[in-house]
UniProtKB/TrEMBL annotation:
Name of the protein in question: Major facilitator superfamily (MFS) profile domain-containing protein
Pfam family, one: MFS_1
Key words of the record: Cell membrane, Membrane, Transmembrane, Transmembrane helix
Lipid bilayer topology: Multi-pass membrane protein
Annotated transmembrane regions: 9-27, 47-71, 83-103, 109-129, 136-156, 168-187, 208-232, 252-275, 287-307, 346-365, 377-398
Cross-referenced SUPFAM superfamilies: MFS general substrate transporter
One Gene Ontology cellular component: plasma membrane
Domain Major facilitator superfamily (MFS) profile: 13-402
Subcellular location: Cell membrane
Gene3D superfamilies: MFS general substrate transporter like domains (1.20.1250.20)
């Protein structure tokens, strides 16, 4: 199949995928603003709230391997449009839910339903756009997700008194059906490129991905950088801003808006400059090096209370845009026909990380609070643990010669180096 974008690709391909990923990110982060209402109505503990919200990530993660296989065999048009109807069903059930069990099931269906929105878009871009435009188009797709996150901050907080959290999910169900219809009507009809392959061989190829050194190199950073950011953005940023920074819900929603606006600016920057960067030799992996180093510094400033709150959270959002390059950097290590399986395998690690971090922070908070820690102190401890895990996972991404230079520099500065 030609890698040149077909005529009208922006309207026929980009916009349908952008709508799907907008909806996916809106649903990923919506619980951050509605969490106080959910907690009051259902009487949830921190661990229960973390578990309920992370059911999205659990179902999303479990769906990644089947979704990756389906995308490679049947293409994004069929797979993503069908799953968006599951999203609509889950949204309706969430709007009707009245217990932890019913809301958890609905949240899981929502996570399963949007599980192909990003990977389907990346697969479609790989099918219908030339390689040099991949980073830019990925940046623009991710920017549409940032728009969803923006919607799920101050705008949603303003809507809550008017329609309530149940009304929000009725509206989301309608948008999900519209997105599914748009994908079916607009996307080119793709060939079933891998449809005749033996399923056993396909499953074995997936297993081979998870033990490949090229995959393992990116697995940890996907867990704790990509997954960690999703856990903070979709839930734990709100308790941090309210308990540690002392903001009310309205001010917290404005900081979330700023965080998500920063993410939008970062993604648009990658979209605008991505082609130029690639042509100048700045590949996705190099973008990860600089972006993740910046994220570590900004999060350290947040944990230790250094610098203005608005600046730190804006920069956190802007630098998080580099997470999108993890999919391209890892998939580039494998044959093109495995793009769907590799990218969804990386996404599985990201959403597993989001589930573990989101629920894990809730467990840590409940444990420390039971031992008479204050909530601000418990939050600082939990965020600091995440920061350490991110630093450890960053090391395998660094080139070996960088680490070699660092070791030689340390030896040269050590006592007695001049006598050797």
């Amino acid at each position: 199949m030609s890698r040149d974008a077909p005529p009208g690709a922006w309207v026929r391909i980009f916009l349908p995928f952008a709508l799907g990923y907008y909806l996916s990110y809106l649903l990923r982060t919506v619980n951050a603003v509605i969490s106080p209402a959910l907690t009051d109505e259902l009487g949830l503990s921190a661990a229960q709230l973390g578990l309920l919200t992370s059911m999205y990530f659990l179902a999303f993660g479990l769906a990644q391997i089947p979704v990756g296989i389906a995308l490679d065999r049947y293409g994004p048009r069929r797979v993503e449009s069908a799953l968006l109807l599951v999203t609509a069903l889950g949204s309706v059930l969430f709007a009707l839910g009245d217990s932890m069990a019913s809301l958890g099931l609905a949240r899981a269906l929502i996570g399963m339903g949007v599980s192909a929105c990003l990977m389907g878009a990346l697969k479609g871009l790989a099918l219908w756009y030339p390689p040099e435009r991949q980073s830019s188009m990925t940046g623009f797709i991710m920017a549409s997700g940032a728009m969803g996150a923006l919607t799920a901050s101050a705008p949603l907080e303003l809507m809550m008194p008017l329609v309530g959290w149940r009304g929000v999910f009725w509206g989301i169900a309608v948008v999900a059906v519209l997105a599914a219809y748009t994908l079916v009507r607009s996307l080119p009809r793709e060939e079933r490129a891998g449809g005749q392959a033996d399923l056993g061989a396909v499953l074995r190829s997936v297993g081979a991905i998870f033990v490949a050194p090229a995959f393992l190199r990116f697995a940890g950073s996907s867990l704790f950088f990509v997954g960690g950011f999703m856990a903070l953005q979709s839930l734990w940023a709100v308790p941090w801003l309210m308990e540690v920074e002392g903001l009310d819900l309205a001010a917290t929603a404005r900081i979330l808006l700023l965080l998500n606006f920063g993410m939008l600016i970062g993604q648009l920057s990658i979209g605008v400059f991505g082609v130029r960067l690639v042509r100048r030799g700045v590949e996705p992996l190099r973008m990860l090096h600089f972006g993740y180093a910046g994220l570590l510094l900004v999060q350290a400033a947040i944990v230790f209370g250094v610098g203005p709150v608005v600046v730190k959270w804006f920069l956190l959002g802007a630098l998080s845009a580099v997470n999108s390059q993890a999919y391209l950097a890892s998939a580039s290590q494998f044959p093109r026909e495995m793009f769907g399986r590799v990218s969804t395998s990386i996404n599985l690690m990201a959403f597993a990380g989001a589930f573990v971090v989101q629920w894990g922070i809730g467990l840590v908070l409940d444990l420390l609070r039971a031992n008479e820690w204050t909530m601000p102190a418990a939050l600082r401890f939990a965020f600091a643990v995440l920061l350490v895990l991110q630093f450890i996972s960053f090391l395998p991404l660094l080139p070996r010669h960088w680490l070699g230079r660092w070791r030689r520099r340390v030896r040269a500065q050590s006592p007695g180096a001049d006598q050797e």
